[in-house]
Structures are given as C-alpha cells and as structure tokens.
Specification:
about 220 residues; Rossmann fold; alpha/beta
Length: about 220
C-alpha cells in the first residue's frame, strides 16, 4: 500500500524520550523544583531555545552560556542507557506497509541516536527530517511540508503521527491529516486520538481507503 505517506514525530511518539529529556534538566539544574511530569506537560513538543528561555524566566536563574551543549551531552548519556521505544512501536512498524519518515524538532544527531539505540533506524533509513536543517519549528507547518515534499507526496496524501498539541497544530496548518498518540485515559472517545500503537495500522488503512474514495 503506497497511497499515503506516514510522517512520524520522534519524541513521545516513536521513542519514550520525554521523561529522559526533562530528567536531564533536573539533573543539571538544582533550582528546578518541579516534577518530571510537570516539565513534560509544560515543554512537550517545544523548541529547546524557547524551553531554556522559559526556564530562565520561570526560575529567575541565568543559564551558563554553554548550557545547551552540557544539556545535550546529558541527554545523550541518558539515551544510551535508558531509552526505549514507545510500547508497541516495533511491532507496528514491522507490519506497516506505507512509506514512512521522521520529522522532528530535534537535531539530526539526536534523531539518529534515538533510532539507533532503540533499534528502529532500519525502518526509516535516511528519511529523517529535522527542524534544524530547514529553520522551521512546530507549530509552523514548514517541517511537515518539507518532509512531504522530500517524500514525493502532496500534503493531502500524508498523515502525521504526533503526541504534542504544537505538532498537531503544525500538521493542520500544513493541510495534513493528523493522528494524536496519547497515553491518557479515555482518549479513545476523542476524534483522531489513539492510546495504543497496535491500533495505528488499522487507523491508517481506513484513512487510506477514504483518500482513495475521494481521489
């Protein structure tokens, strides 16, 4: 089946990295007194530069000039030892028959590291697209439009899989159908939201059939 292209977000969608990324802030910045869960809710899907600016404003502390490099090194360490794929993702990708790619706000080195550590890289090859390569961050639609174009699909024949509100907003702004992955309870009652990766292939099959009917 090649009627649609599936564009995956990375953090919180393919790999269970959000806890580790926010744990790195707590590890490096003793003045942060919030829980990992609250940081995840506050910063999910956000550009790192904006997160760092918010931390300075929220806690009234100036970060060291080299903090971004220190932070990325700590995240890299945590990934090496603790990063896991989102539950059900390897099994889902094994049965998925659509063209796929990754479009993430993370630098390309982080994308490759995450996919290599979790043994998912062979599903995507070099079809990896980073906001840092094109200078466009979600909720701007630029990254998803770029990914669709590089994959050879028009936006209306793509589906974005995201876990963040800013990512969903970016997809809609790009004119791309989006499905939101969420581990919260009762999400199945919401339109275009799913809580288990085992459901994704069937959802995509339905979307593909729908687009065939209207093409």
């Amino acid at each position: 089946m090649k009627h649609i292209c599936v564009i995956f977000d990375l953090d919180g969608t393919l790999v269970d990295s959000e806890r580790l990324c926010n744990q790195a802030f707590i590890d490096l910045l003793p003045f942060i007194n919030d829980s990992v869960e609250s940081l995840i809710r506050r910063y999910r899907g956000r550009k790192l530069a904006l997160i760092l600016a918010d931390i300075e404003m929220k806690y009234g502390e100036k970060l060291p000039r080299d903090f971004e490099a220190t932070y990325r090194h700590r995240v890299d360490e945590l990934f090496e030892f603790y990063l896991q794929p989102i539950t059900g993702v390897p099994e889902m990708l094994k049965t998925l028959e659509y063209p796929v790619c990754v479009a993430s706000s993370a630098p390309i080195a982080k994308i490759r590291k995450a996919l290599n550590v979790t043994a998912l890289s062979h599903y995507f090859g070099d079809r990896l697209f980073s906001s840092y390569d094109i200078g466009s961050w979600k909720p701007d639609p630029g990254l998803f439009l770029y990914a669709a174009n590089r994959m050879g699909f028009s936006p209306e024949y793509c589906v974005v899989i995201e876990d963040s509100d800013v990512g969903i907003e970016a997809a809609y702004s790009a004119g791309i159908y989006a499905l939101k992955y969420s581990r919260e309870e009762e999400v199945e009652k919401q339109v275009n939201v799913f809580s288990n990766m085992k459901y994704l292939v069937k959802l995509l099959d339905k979307i593909s059939l729908m687009k065939c009917d209207y093409s």
